[in-house]
Amino acid sequence: MSKQVYVAGKLVPAEQAVVSVFDHGLLYGDGVFEGIRVYGGKVFLLQEHIDRLFESALAIRLELPISNPEMVTAVKDTVRANEISDGYVRLVVTRGAGSLGLDIRRTANPQVIIIADTISLYPDELYRTGMKLVTASTIRNHPGALSPRIKSLNYLNNILAKIEGTDAGTVEALMLNHNGEVAECTGDNIFIVKRGVLRTPQPDAGILEGITRNAVMKLSREAGVPVVECVMTRHDIYTADECFLTGTAAEVIAVTSLDGRQIGEGVPGPITKQLLELFRRLTHGG
Ligand code: PXG
Prior knowledge:
The chain has helices at residues 24-28, 46-59, 68-81, 124-129, 156-167, 211-222, 234-238, 270-283, and strands at residues 4-7, 10-13, 31-39, 42-43, 87-94, 111-117, 131-135, 172-176, 182-185, 189-194, 197-200, 227-229, 242-247, 251-258, 261-262. With 286 residues, it is of the alpha+beta class. The protein has two domains: 4-117, Aminotransferase class 4, branched-chain amino acid transferase, N-terminal domain (D-amino Acid Aminotransferase, Chain A, domain 1), CATH 3.30.470.10; 124-284, D-amino Acid Aminotransferase, Chain A, domain 2. Strand 10 and strand 11 (197-200) form a beta hairpin. Bound molecules: 3-[O-phosphonopyridoxyl]--amino-benzoic acid (PXG).
């Protein structure tokens, strides 16, 4: 069976799924996207992802050509057509083809693209041992320039930070905001545990409000572990009992050092392990 991609309102074989070289998504990173997991044939937290996509589009003044419920159906149809049981959906909306200029009034036909595929994950080993992080010198986008709450097609900010992590031999990198406070990682949100309380930066710290983040905060509260959204500095991470990241691809993964400094006992902590277990139960319908 050949891979089917949703583009221009229908499913077509992958090799026929194309957009114009004049599309402002390509020319200017003018568009929005989502990354969603499929577990056991079910699209995980689909409505939350579509709602965030519509909010990102609203924030960049991009009017989607299909409605929210139509988008839900299109994603489900694409997953089914590709017989994906455990995998990944990439949902992309571009401004559409236009002239070689910034004026959006000269663009037409925003493109909705849906790709359902397999996903490459961090090795199991990393979940057992925890990952190392370094702080990138590249700060997160200033919210007054381009809000990190928008999941836009312009990810250069994060890519530059990720390169710094790769250069330092880590798979993720910590990004600070314009005030020097902890924001998030390049594709994951960050949490610490201190004296039995979960702490994470608030949305207006200049972060993407992760859907995994929100799900883990709910699981934590239900398990009796309080959660506080607050300003965090690297001092809080260096002196934390536990640290972990959350994200669609990563799920929940322990962080055991930052900038070469050991965090807590240097191994995945008990609350981190409990939340990973609870999250995995949630993804598997438990
Ligand atoms: N922060 C940033 C900057 C992200 O891009 C997250 C946090 C976590 O959000 P969610 O909603 O996933 O819990 C993200 C998500 C990819 C990819 O292919 C990236 C993300 C998600 C899925 C795939 O690079 N980033």
